[in-house]
Write a structure and sequence with these properties.
Elements: H1 3-39, H2 46-54, H3 67-77, H4 86-108, H5 114-131, H6 136-151, H7 164-171, H8 176-190, H9 196-218, H10 224-231, H11 252-267, H12 278-303, H13 310-333, H14 337-344, H15 348-357, H16 362-365
């Protein structure tokens, strides 16, 4: 048997294994979706039920611009209706969400490792809470997958990827405009041959500029946005894991410090451990494991750059920089850690791509 034939058989074996893994992940997510709708309290499904109820109304995004109406209109166009059995809706929603995730996992397939498979399985199982209902998250997944697809194309077409978050922002979540801006900033910084301190100074300068600009525009510090939301929820059953500002917002400096503290706790959500509830502990372990993975991934891929094509390198850079921008902006707006988890599911296509393209280990990072 020639070496070429052996290589082909090995490649086919890898593809078969990956397809089997994707199938198992799909079944895991579908099963988890059906379990969650039976055991979780209704607070986890407020947005999904709101969008479901809007399907009964006359939807016209052109005359009544509203992000929930726009979302309901998309699901109506896709054939969803308010009278469908909840379990059928849950399964259909998860399948719709899983397709772009699976496509990105397959596109990034280079290695299948036990650790990456277990971490991604955990994300699918927990993420199915929100992907098994009518939500903006499902639409966001398709936009994130599209970013990953377009950024890997030949230049200058690849640069159109930076316009995709703007389109999503206009129709569904305006704060994605800020995500797009910081994503471009992180992307630009990743090409600069500066030391870490200089890049940090540039980043914090951008944060100060953002905070000052918002204060000039609204006469309010930018991290006060979540406080206004949380003031309406104090004492309710949805206020258990609210994110607070640790310093009084008496200046732009305090505003940026609060922003950075929140960013740290989004990446390492230590405050949720005080509740000692299974889902909170799982969220902590999942988030910290993902943060550590991304660090090891970045360190190891510097070693493996010669094994990557230009298209892969752009996609990898897009994954890392978009994740950084996304979590940084989360640190401004997210009112609680439940919302953090919900919106982090938007990143599953990119996370899946990274998990199955790179080799990551503490040994290699040292």
């Amino acid at each position: 048997m020639t070496s070429t034939l052996k290589a082909r058989l090995f490649k086919r074996s890898q593809v078969f294994t990956l397809l089997a893994l994707i199938g198992l992940l799909g079944m895991l997510g579908t099963l988890a979706t059906l379990i969650w709708i039976r055991i979780l309290p209704e607070q986890y499904f407020y947005d999904g039920e709101l969008i479901r109820s809007l399907l009964k109304a006359e939807l016209n995004p052109a005359t009544a611009f509203d992000t929930f109406i726009n979302t309901a209109w998309v699901f109506a166009v896709l054939g969803f209706n308010a009278d469908t059995d909840p379990e059928i809706t849950a399964i259909s929603s998860f399948i719709l969400a899983f397709v772009p995730i699976a496509a990105c996992v397959f596109a990034g397939m280079r290695r299948i490792q036990l650790g990456s498979s277990l971490l991604f399985s955990a994300w699918i199982a927990v993420g199915s809470i929100y992907l098994g209902q009518l939500s903006k998250e499902i639409i966001a997944l398709w936009f994130v997958a599209l970013i990953l697809c377009v950024i890997g194309l030949k230049r200058p077409i690849a640069w159109l990827a930076f316009t995709i978050p703007l389109v999503y922002a206009i129709g569904f979540r305006p704060y994605w405009l800020l995500i797009a801006a910081f994503w471009f900033l992180f992307w630009w910084l990743s090409y600069r041959c500066w030391n870490f301190s200089l890049k940090a100074i540039f980043l914090y300068g951008s944060m100060f500029t953002t905070s000052a600009a918002y204060y000039s525009y609204r006469n309010e510090h930018i991290t006060e946005i979540r406080n206004r939301v949380n003031e309406l929820r104090i004492g309710s059953d949805v206020a258990q894991s609210i994110i607070v500002n640790y310093l009084p917002n008496s200046s732009i400096l305090h505003d940026v410090v609060n922003w950075n503290i929140s960013w740290f706790f989004i990446l390492f959500p230590i405050p949720v451990l005080q509740f000692l509830e299974p889902l909170q502990i799982l969220f902590f372990l999942l988030t910290v494991s993902t943060t550590i993975f991304v660090y090891l991934f970045v360190v190891n891929f510097r070693i493996e750059l010669t094994m990557s094509t230009p298209s892969q390198r752009r996609r990898i850079r897009a994954c890392v920089t978009f994740l950084m921008a996304f979590t940084l902006v989360q640190a401004i707006f997210e009112p609680d850690y439940g919302s953090v988890l919900k919106h982090m599911t938007n990143l599953l296509p990119m996370l899946g791509y990274m998990l199955f393209i790179g080799r990551w280990s503490i040994k290699n990072a040292s």
